[in-house]
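Appendix C reproduces, verbatim, an entry submitted by the partner laboratory led by Prof. M.T., so that reviewers can inspect both the input and the predicted structure.
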Amino acid sequence: MADRENNKLLFIVNPIAGRLFPKNNYERAAELFKNHGYNVIMKKTAFKGHATELVIKYGHDQDIIVCSGGDGTLNEVISGIMKLGKDVILGYIPSGTTNDFACSLKLSDRMETAAMTIINGQTRTVDIGLFGDCRYFSYIASFGAFTGTSYTTPQSHKNIIGHLAYVLEGMKDIPNIRPYHVRVETDDDVYEGDYIFGAVSNSLSIGGLLKLDSNYVKLNDGLFEILLIKNPKTPLDFSKIIISIRKKEYKDKHIQFFKASNVTFYMDEPIPWSIDGEYEAGAQTVNIQNLHNAIKILV
């Protein structure tokens, strides 16, 4: 970025996100910003939702807000920026366990590399999701099988064993997988069935395990990618679903994959959702909107 002299930079850090490696050298990143002409205020989060509070409290007169943490911390910072009502640029130093949003933007999880990307990078716009009336998300809202894994896996386990922690936690969920009857309406189509999983995403990576086709996913096209998986009747059906998803081919009869900018879910009962890896109670009727080009981020 040019003309950074005296630019104000708010640096929000989640000190417990991700694995406990030396890459989480926040002081070094802060020094890099200062050495390149930024006036830096660094704040560390202390509890869930704190990053949003820090953005609202300190972000009004900042030119750039930099976040270091996982997908959940990034979600909180973006939520704060959306509530600021101010045109501010976002920088992201991913230090979580999965970092799905960062993978989609090809952002390094090496502290110094990510910091230099913020210093020398260019801004691009990305779409943001609005779940209901006031819950924002950067890359995914999902329900059904395994979605609880992201918010029930202990942070200590994530830090020590990374992705494997999610896999092990998810295995506990297999006996409890059940279908939910859901009606899904977009501006153009209606889908209805018994689904074991549903996701509204704006990402190339979901949970660090499910990869979507980069030729199909655009982060600023004003559209979500929506994946619905119907209840498999036999183990063979389940195997076909897995193979189809791994090959990034969504032609199996149990898979519905489409794009939409506005989608509403009608459910027989309130179903818990995962919003960027964090718990959301959900409701019988859930509307999700794509906020086109809502955020500017350095890449």
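Residues 71-84 form the longest helix (14 residues). Additional entries are available on request from the coordinating office.
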